[in-house]
Design brief:
Jelly Rolls, 230 residues, mainly beta, 5-stranded antiparallel sheet, 15 strands, disordered N terminus
């Protein structure tokens, strides 16, 4: 499939493409986009423990998620969840990482992920889902992934390797979960790769869930209670 797509690109654009090499224009990961939380309900710091996250197969691909010490990626906080620690992910990977279940409420509707992504540009990549539906960070995903049908094929996601100057760094990014308000959900971090060219992959330093410290409705209710008992 990669050879076919690249061949079509040559015919349509009159350019030169080489199958099996990562010669597509790089895609920047994005800018820092930390959530603005008044309170943190869940702070899953992977340097402390695996925090109860569970690897799950998806799309029939190879398993890659592991928790432990990562010492190769610059700026690594120590223990992380990653798609193969201290090395490159394999070809034909298709693996998800499932969070513990939690309820989305006014104090737990923002999801912040501090992560590092370095993959074959466009062909391999990753994204975040809830109940099988891709959820989009507040500053959007940078690309549509070409991956073979392993977890993320044809979906929006993160991708890129910094080969053309994009900065591959640890970066926080935010998701708004208000569409799932009052529901109990699990968030899944899906990763997929095709049949050639690999890079270090996807690494998670922490995941936080939070929101408002106290909703306006709660403040109003408390004020009424105090006035009743004066």
């Amino acid at each position: 499939m990669k050879i076919l797509v690249l061949s079509l690109a040559v015919l349509m654009m009159g350019g030169v493409a080489f199958a099996g090499t990562d010669n597509e224009a790089d895609v920047p990961l994005g800018i820092r986009d930390a959530c603005t939380m008044q309170a943190v309900t869940y702070n899953w710091d992977f340097n402390i423990s695996n925090q109860g996250f569970t690897p799950v197969l998806c799309g029939g691909g190879l398993a890659v998620w592991a928790w432990g010490l990562e010492s190769v990626i610059p700026g690594s906080p120590g223990n992380v969840w990653g798609t193969v620690l201290n090395g490159n992910y394999p070809n034909n990977a298709g693996h998800g990482l499932l969070s513990p279940a939690f309820q989305v409420t006014p104090s737990s509707y923002l999801l912040e992920v501090n992560h590092y992504v370095r993959t074959e540009t466009n062909w391999d990549g990753c994204n975040v889902t809830v109940n099988g539906t891709v959820i989009t960070p507040t500053n959007n995903y940078p690309a549509t992934l070409y991956t073979a049908p392993l977890c993320v094929s044809g979906e929006l996601g993160w991708t890129g390797n910094g080969s053309t100057g994009a900065s591959q760094v640890w970066i926080p990014q935010c998701f708004d979960l208000t569409a799932y308000m009052n529901q109990t959900i699990q968030v899944e971090f899906d990763f997929g790769s095709d049949s050639s060219v690999t890079y270090p992959g996807w690494y998670l330093a922490y995941v936080k869930v939070g929101g408002a410290g106290q909703t306006p409705a709660e403040k109003t209710t408390w004020g009424r209670i105090k006035s009743i008992h004066r």
